[in-house]
Design goal:
With about 200 residues, the protein is an all-alpha fold. The chain has two domains: about 1-45, Arc Repressor Mutant, subunit A (Orthogonal Bundle), CATH 1.10.10.60; about 55-185, Tetracycline Repressor, domain 2, CATH 1.10.357. The chain has helices at about 5-20, 25-30, 35-40, 45-70, 75-90, 95-100, 115-135, 145-165, 175-185. The N and C termini lie far apart (about 60 Å).
């Protein structure tokens, strides 16, 4: 691993545990066992470092979801695979997931406008699948983009409960995520009228 990668790993851990306000370049340098000057060779300032963390995490999530786009021709199967992939990423990469979606906005530096495109692509991937299902009369939705945000909000709720360890201990987390995902997807599917 390069020094830049070491810096990102340590700063990711510190950001989640301590919050943006308490993270400093000096503390990160101490943790990585280098001088603060060495960090400035890779990042202009603390904001630049934290935005690099956000960008890296979004890219990993986006790559995980993109793999599901070509996995099937059936929009329902695609949506299920995307939902599975989203939850899997959140549970297997909790720190990266938290940096994207759970670190409080006021604690983070202002995200540059041009970088929002990367975040939007995640919702647009979901919206594309929903639009395809809508056109094939498989999904009962009015606005695919709004539905994509709704889907994300529901999946985020499921992931957040598990990551933050707020799930009732009597409920197995794997089963909870599977059932919740199925209920969420069923909410989009057009109900067939019995003959």
């Amino acid at each position: 691993m390069s020094l830049r990668d070491d810096i990102l790993v340590e700063s990711r851990d510190m950001l989640i545990k301590q919050g943006f306000g308490k993270v400093s370049m000096r503390k990160i340098a101490k943790k990585v066992n280098v001088s603060a000057t060495s960090i400035y060779l890779h990042f202009k300032n603390k904001d630049d470092l934290l935005l690099a963390l956000v960008e890296s995490s979004i890219e990993k999530l986006s790559d995980a979801l993109k793999d599901q786009m070509v996995s099937s021709d059936d929009p329902v199967a695609k949506l299920e695979k995307m939902a599975n992939s989203f939850l899997k990423f959140a549970i297997e990469n909790p720190q990266e997931y938290e940096i994207i979606y759970m670190v409080r906005h006021e604690e983070m530096p202002k995200y540059p406008k041009e970088k929002f495109e990367q975040i939007r692509k995640i919702y647009e991937m979901l919206a594309e699948i929903i639009r395809e299902g809508q056109e094939n009369k498989l999904f009962q939705v009015e606005d695919p983009l709004m539905s994509a945000y709704t889907l994300w909000a529901q999946l985020h709720g499921v992931a957040s409960v598990v990551i933050s360890k707020r799930l009732d201990t009597r409920i197995p987390s794997g089963e909870f995520m599977s059932q919740a995902k199925n209920h969420i997807i069923q909410g989009f599917i057009t109900q067939k009228t019995p003959v």
